[in-house]
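Follow-up to my earlier ticket, as requested here are the two runs.
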Amino acid sequence: MIKFESVKKTYGNTKAVKNLDLNVEEGEFLVFIGPSGCGKTTSLKMINRLIEPTSGKIIINGKNVLDMNPVELRRSIGYVIQQIGLFPNMTIEQNVDLVPRLLGWDKERRQKRVHELLELVNMDPNEFSQRYPNELSGGQQQRIGVLRALAAEPSIILMDEPFGALDPITRESLQDELKKLQNKLHKTIVFVTHDMDEALKMADRIALMKDGELVQLDTPEMLLRKPANEFVLDFIGKHRTNGQGLEAVESIMKTNPVTIAPEKGVNEAIALMKRKNVNTVLVVDHEDNLIGTVSVEAMREHKKATKVGELAYMSIPTVTAGSPAKDAFDLLTSEKLDYIPVVDNNSKLLGLVTRTSMVNALADAVWGEEDTA
C-alpha cells in the first residue's frame, strides 16, 4: 500500500530522515513514535507531500508520489492534526463534506455521507450537522476532524498526534472510537504520537525512530518482548517489560459484574443491589452490550422512574479489552472512580476493574519483585 524506499530528508546539513525503508500494508494501523526531532512527523508528511523528500521514493499503490499531482494526492488521503483545523464559519456538515465538495460530489450524496459518518460516532445528524465548531466540546470537534478525513472514502488516513491536546478521559474515549472505526472500515492508518501507551494500544506495528533513523519496527508485543537495544528499552520504559509482554486489563478485571436489563423495573434493581451488596449495577442489553449504569443515588433523585433504562447513566469511561492494565489504573486514580467497565470493540461487557482489583494487582507486583530480589 505505502512503501518507503531509501527516503531521505535534509535541511542544509541537518538530516531529518536518513534512508528510511518501510512498507505499510493495506488495512494496517502503523504508529510512528520517538523523541522530539526523530523524524516521525516528517516521515508522515512526506506521504502526502506536505514535505517533499530530498531523495528516495514513496510509492502508493505502485505510483511514486512525486509523479502525482500534489493537490489530487492530498484530496485522496485523509489527514487529521492535533489542531483539528475546523473552519469556524462553516457548519459541521460543511466542514465534513469539504473534500467531497471539492471532488464534485452532488449535494444529496454529500449529505448522506455526512449523516452516515455522524451516526458512526453516535452524534445525531439532526442535532449536530447544522451546528458550528464553537458549539462543540474539544472532544466533539476532534471527532469531526476524524470524520472529515474519512468523508471522501480515502483508503489512507494520516493522523499527526490527533489526540495530544485532549484531556485523559476524552483521549481514551476517542482512542476507543478510532479502534472501533478501524475494525469496521479497515483503512490504512499512519499515526504519529509521542505517547508510548497510546502507541501500544492503537498500533498493529510500531515504528520507533531516533535521529532520523528507524530503530525498531515491530508489533507492540514483540517490541515489549524483544527491545532491539538499550534506547528502545529506555524509551518504552523498563517498568513495561517483564519478558512476557505488558499485562492486559483482562488479567485484573472481575469477570462477573452485576448486570441488569434496561426493561427491568426499579424495584427489581433495588432487590438485586441488596442481594449482591452493591450500590451500582451495569445496564446491558440482551447481547450483553453495555448501555450504562444505575446507582442508588439515581433512584433517589428520580423516584417517578419505573424502568431501569430511564435511569441509566450512559457517559461512563470504559477500557477496551487488550488495553494495558495501566490505562485502567490511570483512569481510576485521575478521575477518582470506583470502577471501570471492560468492553470489547463492539461495546460488549466483559468485566469490571475496581479499586480492589487494582490494589490486589499492585500488591502482587510488589510481592513478585520481593520474591525475585
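Run two:
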Amino acid sequence: MSLKIDDIAHNLKVLKRIEETPQATSFVLEIPENLKEKFKYKPGQFVSFFMDVKGEQISRSYSLSSAPEVDEDFQVTVKRVEGGKGSNFLCDHIQAGDTLKTAPPSGHFFKSMDSTKHFVLFGGGSGITPLFSILKHVLKTKPDARVSLVYANRSEDQIIYKKELQQWATDHTSRLQIHHLLSQPSAAWELPTSKITSAWIGSFLGEIDQGSTEFYICGPEGYMELCKNALLESSVAKERVHQESFATSIPKSAQPATDIDGKTLIGKSPSEEADTYKVSVTLQGVTKEFNVKKDETILEALIEAGENPPYSCMDGACMACMGKVESGLVMQEDPGILTQENIDVGECLTCQSKPRAQNSKITYDIF
C-alpha cells in the first residue's frame, strides 16, 4: 500500500486571512460538520498543508494558534521564511474562499498535568503560535495555574498577537506575566526589554519554584538550543523541558547511528529476513497483531487494516506518528527528525518504519 494525499488530507475552505505582522498571516479554516470529530485538537497541536507550488508537491506543518476551549475559529498562523516555498506561497497567494488540503491536527507538544502550577513559555518569532494556544488553554481551564511568557523578537513590529497578548495580560493580571525581549527595539518602545541570553534566563529562573513548573520552548533552532541549554545548566529537570520543532533535518552531530547499509535500525533484536512480519501494535490501550509486508511501513499496514493511528506529514518531518519499539526491530531508510536520544529509547516514526524482526512490539501509548 502507498498512501495518497487524498487518504490523509481534506480540502478546507479559508474563511478569513488576518495580517498579524508584515511577515506573519493567520488563516481561519472552516471545518465541515462531517469532519468536526476528525479535526478536534489539543492546545499546541499542528496541521500539515499539502500544496502544489509551481508544479511541485510539498507538505508543510504549521501550528494552531487557536485554543479549543476558548476560540470558535480554527486558526493557523504562518510566518514568511526567506526562500521558504510553503510559507511564501501561503502568504502571497492564499485568500479567503480558497481551499487548503489539510491533514487533521496532531502533535504531542503540550503535556497537561494537574500538579503543574506554573507554565513558563519561551517563544521566539513565530514560535509564539503553539504557545499562544497553550497560554489561552491554561488560563481558561486551570484556575490555580499561572503563566509566564518570555517572547523574543527583533523589534516590536514583529510581535505576533501583540494586542491579543496585551488583552490577556490585562484580563489576568495576577496569573499572566509577559516579558518582551527585543534585540532592536525602536526609540518609541517604552517597556523594559533585553536580548535573550543564558544570563538573563538564569536570573529569571531565580524567581521560580521549579518543582511545580513546566517549561515549553518554540522558535528558531538556535533560540531553542540556547533556552534549553540555559534551563538545563540551571538544574531544571530534563523531563520538565518540552520543545517543539518542525525542522526537516537535524545537525549531523545529532543524527543517529546507522547500519552498514546506511539504514537506521531501532530496537535490540537481530535482523531477520522475511517477506512478511508479525507485528503487535498497541494503540489507545488495545493491542492487536498485524501482518506487515517487508516493504510496507507500520503506519501503512495499520491504515490498510482500518485502524486510526496518529499521523500528519508522512515525511518523517514531524513526530505525530511516533511509536516506541518495546521489543523487536524496525528499519527507517532515513532518521527524519529523530535524534540519537530518540533512537536510544526505542522511539520510531511509524510512517517511515518497516519491521525487520518477527514478533516486534510497537506502542503508540507513550505520551
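The only thing I checked on run two: The longest strand covers residues 10-19. Let me know what else you need.
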